[in-house]
Design the sequence.
């Protein structure tokens, strides 16, 4: 088993490198970048101020923004653009040989030199190997600080959704296996397929319309994890307020994940029910409940229990982006969405590196869970 784990750990390095390389390459072809985002913001502020000061060219001609000295009205100067490119790592300052002072673009002996994309990639990976993810372009925080700040919301959403999925899927899957081929099995399978087919974001919007004051009932809050009077609530009040806010996001996240788990549980039970030891237990006169939960459950649940890490990670990463954005939950999903819109490369690639590494490690942990719950599994022998 040790050799198998070592091989898997060694595969993490080229796999993670390939993930980062593909995504970094794709971003080079995406129009717009952080510099363009800053220019667009400045121009938008200039247009707004121009409209306020008199409306378009007429206002400018009457001594509006153009005469006010507002930098955005005249555009960003080439010097400021050069400084932004250096600050964001797209260029570097190169000075003449023999220059002894501090490199500065204002010095005639220094100039801006673009850094090729391939060099920027290797510089970035070198920093990431030391877990130095840099600082956000548009926040006064490092990437690590942003991730740590947003992580509790996403973990809460993923953990509650995974627990709820297991609490629903296992009893329902067992019931479907026992009632295989009956009307109960048929209509529950139809409901599961419909729930699985509905996209998570569409289900989230439907929940908002129905239960968050969209068009029908205002039972649950529309956004956030806590109420405005959170600090004044008692401990029990805080717990109830938290559950009240998290109800709709958790349901929206769970709807697609529990379908797969239910069918997996059913198939595992059906496979075990038809084995010889179950027939022997029944022939000895054991009650059906004793057979199911004393013998079948222990063997059928191996694959379901061992898959918990992967299931949690799938819920954590798969649905959090859309659900957090819809319900305005300040978690990693919303952070990633905003980073993609803003072209905030340190946040995009930093979180991609961290989550990619976590996903690969969790894959190894899932294999170890299979061996832990069922020692008969030997991945090393299969690999050989």
Sequence:
């Amino acid at each position: 088993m040790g050799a198998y784990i070592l091989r898997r750990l060694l595969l993490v390095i080229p796999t993670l490198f390939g993930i980062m390389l593909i995504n970094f390459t794709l971003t080079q072809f995406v129009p717009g970048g952080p510099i363009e985002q800053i220019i667009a913001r400045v121009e938008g502020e200039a247009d707004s101020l121009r409209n306020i000061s008199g409306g378009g060219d007429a206002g400018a001609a009457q001594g509006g923004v153009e005469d006010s000295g507002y930098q955005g009205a005249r555009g960003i100067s080439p010097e400021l653009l050069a400084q932004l490119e250096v600050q964001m790592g797209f260029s570097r300052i190169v000075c003449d040989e023999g220059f002894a002072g501090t490199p500065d673009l204002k010095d005639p002996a220094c100039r801006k030199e673009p850094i090729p994309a391939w060099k920027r990639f290797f510089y970035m990976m070198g920093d990431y190997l030391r877990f130095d993810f840099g600082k956000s372009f548009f926040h006064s925080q490092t990437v690590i600080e942003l991730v740590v700040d947003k992580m509790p919301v996403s973990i809460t959403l993923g953990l509650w959704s995974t627990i709820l999925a297991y609490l629903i899927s296992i009893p329902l899957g067992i019931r479907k296996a026992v009632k295989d081929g009956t009307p109960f099995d048929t209509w529950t399978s139809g409901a599961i397929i419909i729930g699985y087919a509905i996209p998570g974001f569409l289900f989230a919007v439907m929940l908002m319309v129905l239960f968050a004051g969209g068009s029908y009932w205002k039972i649950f809050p529309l956004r956030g994890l806590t109420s405005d009077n959170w600090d004044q609530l008692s401990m029990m009040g805080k717990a109830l307020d938290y559950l009240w806010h998290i109800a709709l996001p958790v349901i929206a996240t769970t709807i697609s994940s529990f379908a797969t788990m239910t069918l997996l549980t059913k198939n595992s039970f059906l496979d075990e029910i038809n084995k010889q030891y179950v027939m022997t237990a029944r022939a000895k006169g054991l009650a059906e409940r004793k057979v199911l939960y004393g013998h079948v459950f222990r063997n059928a649940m191996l694959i379901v229990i061992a898959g918990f890490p992967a299931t949690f990670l799938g819920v954590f990463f798969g649905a959090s982006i859309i659900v957090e954005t819809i319900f305005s939950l300040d978690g990693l999903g919303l952070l990633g969405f905003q980073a993609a819109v803003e072209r905030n490369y340190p946040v995009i690639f930093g979180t991609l590196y961290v989550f990619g590494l976590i996903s690969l490690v969790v894959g190894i942990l899932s294999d170890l869970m299979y061996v832990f719950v069922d020692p008969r599994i030997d991945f090393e022998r299969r690999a050989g």
About this structure: DSSP finds 18 helices and two strands in the chain. The longest strand covers residues 91-95. The longest helix spans residues 235-273.
